[in-house]
UniProtKB/TrEMBL annotation:
Its cofactor is heme. GO terms for molecular function: heme binding; iron ion binding; monooxygenase activity; oxidoreductase activity, acting on paired donors, with incorporation or reduction of molecular oxygen. This is Cytochrome P450. InterPro entries: Cyt_P450, Cyt_P450_B, Cyt_P450_CS, Cyt_P450_sf. The lineage of its organism: Bacteria, Pseudomonadati, Pseudomonadota, Alphaproteobacteria, Hyphomicrobiales.
Length: 405
């Protein structure tokens, strides 16, 4: 059977998700011109063109996908993972979403993150100083994973010594946010969510009895004063912040460094001119994003470049495709840290009320991490490039071997 069977009734192209796994950028480039929308499964669609993607995010006929709809459409079995997906503010809207997200807004605001920049810089420099010299090592394990994990631990008030406990469980848990729920991995995902839930509960109960000067203590104190949500819902919000603050930046930073090492003239340019670092971060986020798509839900029929979608379906907005679309970027398949055609708001972080709450933190972590590397390990060489796997949701990354001469 041809995986690219055309359904004339809806105008979308039916594509087996598996055909997009090996070379999603190439597949999107081939399909995008003639097929603005793909159908990935029952009631699941994906928009590819930049011109459509930018409009859909603010189209009132679509809304953020509610957790209950995500669980139902994806067929997530009942349990800890399903409860988390139904509860986390990422999968919510309206007043409930604002209330849950608002608990963290102050800690991730521009001013608060800027104030933490010296701490992020110190963490990055310490990690670079600890990297092995003259021997091959996994860059993701030894640096890319450590900076965001240690910073999210510091913000929440979790012991940095425990990042090695929660990080692997975060990486397993993040697989739940994929274009097609990985049912074969469900047992591992379920275990990871359950263990992380108990881990956060233990720390929050300690803060209830012995408050400290950290975000977890403030969250618990505020909740005790005004428990407008259940305690388990509060725990789920903290879980989501840990996942979002740990996994996406880990993958994005590793890919950025890999791309720079594959373009040695641009790595050298950064060493000579650190003012290029913010542009390099933006370009890495564009060229191969760790978040491949943003999920919406149609609450009314909607037309996308001539394709008619009914109400009540899941619509993925493909960042990956849009950020390689020549409608939005000149020479989109060229990695260029000096690129000057980035939109004012980077598409990878979404839009509106659901724009990524950790955008500023992620940018500064990557900028300070890169600055520490080019200054402290300028002779780093890439031995095995990592690969971002998947074409939507939170993408998974393979190991990355490097050596510092």
């Amino acid at each position: 059977m041809n995986d690219h069977t055309f359904i004339a009734a809806r105008g979308a192209l039916v594509v087996s998700p598996q055909t997009l796994m090996d070379d999603p950028h190439g597949q999107f480039a081939t399909l995008r011109g003639d097929h603005p929308v793909l159908q990935l499964g029952e009631r699941q669609f994906m928009a590819l063109r930049a011109s459509d993607v930018m409009v859909i995010l603010s189209d009132p006929r679509t809304k953020p996908l509610e957790g209950r709809d995500y669980v139902r459409i994806q067929g997530v079995p009942e349990g800890a993972a399903a409860r988390f997906l139904r509860d986390f503010f990422l999968f919510g809207s309206g007043a409930e979403h604002r209330a849950k997200r608002g608990m963290f807004a102050r800690s991730f605001a521009h001013g608060a993150v800027r104030a933490a920049q010296p701490q992020i810089q110190a963490v990055a420099r310490r990690i670079v100083a600890e990297l092995p010299r003259g021997e091959s090592f996994d860059f993701i394990d030894r640096m890319a994973a450590r900076v965001p994990a240690e910073m999210i631990a510091a913000i929440l008030g979790l012991p940095q010594s425990e990042t090695s406990y929660f990080a692997p469980r975060v990486y397993a848990m993040s697989r739940a946010v994929s274009p097609v729920y990985p049912i074969d991995d469900h047992a591992e995902i379920e275990t990871a969510v359950s263990e992380l839930f108990r881990y956060v509960v233990d720390h929050m109960r300690i803060r209830s009895e012995q408050p400290r000067d950290d975000l977890l203590s403030r969250l618990v104190a505020d909740w005790k004063d005004d428990p407008v949500i259940t305690f388990s819902t509060l725990v789920h919000q903290v879980l989501g912040i840990i996942v979002g603050g740990t996994d996406t930046t880990r993958a994005a930073f590793a890919v950025l460094v890999s791309l720079l090492l594959q373009h040695p003239e641009q790595w050298t340019a950064l060493r000579d001119d650190p003012s290029l670092i913010p542009g390099a971060v933006s370009e890495g986020l564009r060229y191969d994003p760790s978040v491949g798509s943003i999920v919406r839900f149609t609450n009314a029929p909607v037309e996308i470049s001539g394709v008619e979608l009914p109400a009540g379906v899941m619509l993925r907005i493909s960042n990956m495709s849009a950020m390689r679309d020549p409608e939005l970027y000149a020479e989109p398949d060229r990695f260029d840290i000096r690129r000057n055609d980035h939109p004012r708001l980077h598409p990878v972080f979404g839009a509106g009320a659901h724009r990524c709450i950790g955008e500023m933190l992620a940018r500064i972590e990557m900028q300070e991490g890169l600055a520490a590397l080019v200054a402290g390990a300028p002779a780093m060489e890439l031995q095995t490039a990592p690969q971002l796997q998947g074409f939507g949701g939170l993408r998974q990354i393979t190991p990355m071997q490097v050596i510092i001469r």
